[in-house]
Amino acid sequence: MASSREPRVLLPQLKLDELLEELQARIDAARGTRDRVHSLLEAVLSVGRELDLEQALHSIVEAAAALVDAEYAALGVIGPDGRTLSAFHTVGVSDEKITEIGPYPQGHGILGELIRHPEPLRLSKISEHPASYGFPPNHPPMRSFLGVPIRVRGQVFGNLYLTEKRGGLEFDEEDESVLSTLAVAAGVAIDNARLYEDSRLRERWLLANAEITHRLMPGSERSEALDLIAERARDITGSALAEVAMPMADTPSLTVEIAVGEGAETHRGLVLPLHEGLMGLAYSTAAPVTSDDITRDDRITAEPPRFLGLGPAVAVPIGTGEVGARGVVLLVREAGRPVFSDKETEMLQGFAAQAAIAMELAERRQDAQQLALLEDRDRIARDLHDLAIQRLFATGMTLQSAGRFIEHPKAADRVLRAVDDLDETIKIIRSTIFGLRTREGGAGSGLRARVVRVAGEAAPVLGFAPGVRMEGLIDTEVPLRIADHVVAVLSEALTNVARHAHAHAVEVVLTTDGREVVLRVADDGVGIPSGGRRSGLRNMAERAEQLGGRLELGGAKSGGAVLTWSVPLPGEA
């Protein structure tokens, strides 16, 4: 009887083990792919949460290193020239090691290859690529390499560089795919961070403009507004030094009225030419002027040395358009800091333009107040003339007529004296009326402008232009009587230098702290001889003594003579 069972197929045990191992491998691969996709999503979310640009860039580098299991990672930001790197963010290299290696790379070799050809680049050995030319001393060894560009709104922002995959492995296509995906997310995150940064920056500029307008409109001094412009511009742009220069009336010069920050004391009061230097060019062209390194810029005069340790700079006119520039603001960053970008310059220019409008409105308001004051003075003068003087004149005539009928000598004498007093009173009132209707001196009558004119007039005789520096509220705190003496002493001092000193350089420094005014004239000539005529010096000394001041003569360390003429200001001991 035949059996109803079907024969069983027996598989060799070895074959079954192989199938189980292959299945397990595929499960592990699927699990690995799932975990990697999960890690990629986490990385995308992580970099997308950052709104601070610097922190976002650091998060991108960290995420890239973790995703492809690289020991070293970096993100190079391409500079404005499109050929070099302006910033370099690293992961995997300690600060001590970075110090040993030296400056960050500029974008040559393999790094430059990705800048020139912004496409993913994967190498098993960096040294085998034609663009490679080795590493600097103290640089850690690196073999495998993977680089991908990061694009923001279609433009290459920078590149991700990954080296040394852990375990001695090489970067594969999957690593390249994952990193390229992260680069897309990074581009969006960077764009968002930049937009957020721009909005915050614009908000800070708007608040600064509002603060300046609020300060100017109630009638604050112009110097306070200029100081606020310098302080806010320096703070917002992260600059080490900020200056504001204004034109000097009737002279082809600018004077640095405000300077804040590093080395500010060497800049205040400097007199600069209108068509030279960053500030002069910005003022004369009514357009921004930038410099990558102000210490090496041919447009900046070497003397006096005042930009040590500084680097990128930008000068922006205060106000443009039909009315032209009202002044110039100069910002300088520390050496090694990023240059001023076009967007930063544009925002700064907008800030300066709004500040100029605020200054214009404040001046118009002051003009309106001044006009109202002058109209009120005219009314008072008219009333004094038409009412008070006529009444006094009539009273005097009446008394003079009545005097003829007074027989008592002493009484008649008193009446005549009263008539004389009325005449004197009328004269005083007329003098007061004249004072009410007389305006102060016109433009260009200030002490600053007069000092610059005297120095300029002495240049042909000296054979060179004297250096001029002024500090303090020269035009407002030094009265006209003392200002006349200052101008006379300066003219005499420069004449003496031209005649006797045989000098090649002269420095004129005029300062005031509200208590006294000090004029210092120093030259590099032969000094003051022991004999000879000293009438000029005697005249200067007498002028100082008349005003309660003094004249001091001395020698300079480098040769030559130093004349110091100082007098106290009214109200000071």
Q: Quick recap of the structure?
A:
The chain is of the alpha+beta class and 573 residues long. Helices cover 49% and strands 19% of the residues.
Number of helices: 13
Radius of gyration: 39 Å
Spans of at least 5 consecutive residues whose pLDDT stays below 50 are: 438-443
Task: Note the beta-strand portion.
Answer: 15-25%
Q: Which sheet architecture does the biggest sheet show?
A: 6 strands, antiparallel
Estimated structural class: alpha+beta
Distance between the termini: 143 Å
In total, the number of strands is 16
Strand order of the largest sheet: 8-7-6-11-10-9
The dominant shape is: elongated
Question: What is the element string, with H for helices and E for strands?
Answer: HHEEHHEEEHHEEEHEEEHHHEHHEEHEE
Q: Give the oligomeric state.
A: single chain
* Helix content bin: 40-55%
Mean pLDDT across the residues is: 79
